[in-house]
Amino acid sequence: MRILIVEDDDRIADFLMRALQVEGHNVTRLDSGKDAVSVVRGGDFAFILLDIMLPGKSGIAVCQELRFRKINTPIIMLTAMDSTEDIINGLKIGADDYITKPFDLDELMARIESVSRRQQGLDVVNTELCIADVHMHTDSKIVTVSGKDVSLTAKELSILELLMSNPNKLFSRERILNNIWGANSDPLTNVVDVYIGRIRKKLGKDESSFIETVRGLGYRIDPQAGAKPSANLPKRLD
Q1: pLDDT tens across 29-72, in order?
Q2: Is this prediction's pTM over 0.70?
Q3: Which residues contact 231 (CB under 8 A, 6 or more apart)?
Q4: Which of these, 106, 121, 209, lies nearest to 158 by C-alpha position?
Q5: In 3-state terms, what secondary structure has residue 65?
Q6: For the stretch 56-95, what's the b/e string if a residue is b when 16 or more beta carbons lie within 10 angstroms of its beta carbon?
């Protein structure tokens, strides 16, 4: 994605730029709100990370003007811990989400991915994700393996959709927690491992044939691994 960062703190901006570039994004940075609206109008940005406290023009004012001009580019507000009123005002005038400083990179990436999925969902009527013999219809939430329906819970469906939508992309446990359960979930629990195990069991897949565990880092779906023969589906899905 092409992402615009509007942040006057050089240290934070540098951190964000390097992190997003590593993820493969094309990043532009502004250090004030003064020219933000004209830059957004002149560029094809998929996402905006917008600090609230900016010189020249506040992030709230920038967001308000963008929405007034019918520019619907997704916006995540960057804010200090104690600026509750600013957060509320930002959401009221059209920001899609916010994250408080200091923030964890995995949490930020999870929020970007979550907002992006919501935006894409506005334009997608029926999307089918297919990797090997596993098929998911994202509108109806129907999952099949080799043509046989598989019953998954809402959380299991959300995790599977996240991974299948991003083949080969590695997701840490923390990022999965932030995407599926929200930013306040405890990253020290093994809830993600439990759910991944349940998904594998219901799909009739082991670690080598679909959802790969990268030790100490997280999980990903390798389409090539998914092409390997899978175990037999269980006769009963509870």
Answers
A1: 999 998 999 999 888 898 999 999 899 899 999 999 999 988 88
A2: no
A3: 204, 205, 206, 209
A4: 121
A5: helix
A6: ebbbbbbbbbbeeeebebbbbbbbeeebeebbebbeebeb
